[in-house]
What we know:
9 helices, globular
Amino acid sequence: MYVGLSPFQGSQGTSSTVGPAILSLMYLSLSTGIVPFNFKAALIELLPKKPGLDPALVSNYRPISNLPFQSKIQERIVAKQIVAYLTRNNLFEPFQSGFRNFRSTETAVTRVVNDILLALDTNASLMLVLQDLSAAFNTIDHSILLHRLEHYVGFEGTALGWLESYLTDRTQFVLSEGSESKHCKLRFDVAQGSVLGPLLLAIYMLPLGDVIRSFVISFHFYADDTQLFIPVEPRNSAPIQKLESCLAAVNSWMSQNFLQLNTWKTELIIIVSKWDQREFENVSLWLDGLAIPQSAFVRNLGVLFDPQLCFDQHVRSITRIAFFHLRNIAKSEQCYLQ
Length: 338
């Protein structure tokens, strides 16, 4: 049975008795390095990735783990300490914007746009590749993650033991019409919907930055999205070949670490001045034997990029959405007046 209390069940007239018991349980867990078994049972809820997708296809859903709120409170305490430790020891990937304080989609886009503008100021064009992982949270290997935590981050003793206990014997199940499915044990996975999951994913991907740096190519991570960009010049294929080699190395690293790139979702756009646009008309990249053609527009962390970086398409898109909502508000006005 799923025994996790909701915040409301645990607070209505019982906070004076239940509160100290939960606090003692959490202190005992952290001091012994053992996570209670019931804290590791996740109730899975399937949420559509986007509106309008075919509801009959399982791939169109994102599995979200609903964990007991007591577990999330404890995870929040641990996450705060891990973030402080990583920050204090400069262990975060400098170009990772996801799951960090004062780093957001806005700061990630600002950094990438700034680098593009610097390239354009030198009369160079810039090739930008956007990559996306498939079900990244669900394919993380626990043994590899524990190796990262010990050897890349430096955790040891009770701290490492607690994280090993947190990852070990995790289960998930589905509840439908009052019936509970069999609990499925997980060897791969950090729960999407947990507090620690995104932070552990960022730690899992720490070595990838060094792989890309070895090719002297600029990059930026946001959660499980990767952007690679490099200045290019007309009739010079060397940067393109370097980028293809880097993409192959990234793909190889992903495979070795049980992560899967959405190759068919990989997008390419060349930011170029109008007078050089024809020079790059037929340029494409190759990855895993597949050609990646240029896109007229790409959506980068919610912002539409175009080859001239003028953002006209993005402004039009935002305007359409705003007018759509304004029309809906206008239509509902009569209901409120009545």
